[in-house]
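Thread: Ribbon-helix-helix protein, CopG family, structure

OP (GT): Posting the sequence first so everyone is looking at the same thing. Length is 92 residues per the record. Can we get the structure tokens written out before standup tomorrow? I want them in the notebook alongside the other entries.
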Amino acid sequence: MVNRRVVVLLPESLLREVDRVAHREYGSRSAFIRDAMRHLLAEKLRTEKREKMAVGYQKMGPLNLELAEEGIGQDLVEFDHYLDRLAAGEDY
């Protein structure tokens, strides 16, 4: 992997906080910033996936409801048949 140098402008107070945590837990500012950027990118991707899934569920809602209702109707027919056979004393 090739590393590239970038220039980022940060408020002084934020840079102090980054340096305080970075040197204590990561050893360097660069390692901290790389990790923070990876974390933020992963979180953004998760959020995008959730949003896409929500849209998909909304689009599929009517079809899922129709299929569920169709399945329930068939289940009720089979259940009625089962009850009829029980009432007649037949083995199921």
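GT: Both are above now. Quick notes for whoever picks this up: The helical segments are 12-26, 29-87. The first helix runs from residue 12 to 26.
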